[in-house]
Amino acid sequence: MSQVRFTPFGRTIECAEGEPILSAALSRGYFLRYGCKHGGCGTCKVLVTDGDLEDSGSSFALTRADRSAGWALACSSRPLSDCVIDISAMGLTEDEFLAGDQVETFETVIGSSKIQFTPQKKFFDTTQNWAVALQDIYGGDDAASRLRSLAKTNTSKVNL
After folding, report:
1. Which residue of 41, 144, 145, 152 has the lowest C-beta tally within 10 Å?
2. Domains and CATH numbers, the chain
3. Cα angle at 45 between 39 and 49, to 5 degrees?
4. First CA to last CA distance, the chain
5. d(CA 155, CA 62)
6. For 75-84, what is each residue's pLDDT tens digit?
7. Which of 29, 6, 24, 5 is nearest to 89 (CA)?
8. Which of 11-25, 27-41, 58-72, 90-104 has the highest mean pLDDT?
């Protein structure tokens, strides 16, 4: 188990072996900005000021130069030792950080495929992005309109 300290707020969490930093922070009542939770979008970019991480995030979201400079993706990084992580670049206030995750993840089924998405209107309009993507893939407004409806009603599942 590794200790992960978040600066500038001076809070420390324990991170189980193999547990991503983002998951550990959210499950312990802290908030970090995130989008995809899979290392593809770069929203959870943090600066590692001490310690070692294993980061399996996309090279599109984080370049080799970024990694060399100490940047990592909290959603796909797992501590290999005790670490200090600077989250200043996220622009969070201490109140936001301490408020915990205020975002709900939704799940939808398209045919036999299950898709999870997280609308985060405060940070960017993920719902709109999914709606446009579904419209392009499935060729019509029906899927897009049903997805928008899902986000507005806070329903946990919808069949498109």
Report:
1. 152
2. 2-99 (3.10.20.30), 106-159 (no CATH)
3. 125
4. 42
5. 33
6. 999 999 999 9
7. 6
8. 11-25
The token pair that represents 158 in the structure block: 């919808």
- 51-94, pLDDT tens digit by residue? 999 988 777 888 889 999 999 999 999 999 999 999 999 999 99
Q: 99 is written with which tokens?
A: 């408020």
102-133 tens-digit pLDDT: 666 666 677 777 666 655 443 333 444 444 44
Token duo for residue 62: 């984080």
Rounded Cα gap, residues 22 and 28, in angstroms? 10
Q: Counting every residue, how long is the chain?
A: 160
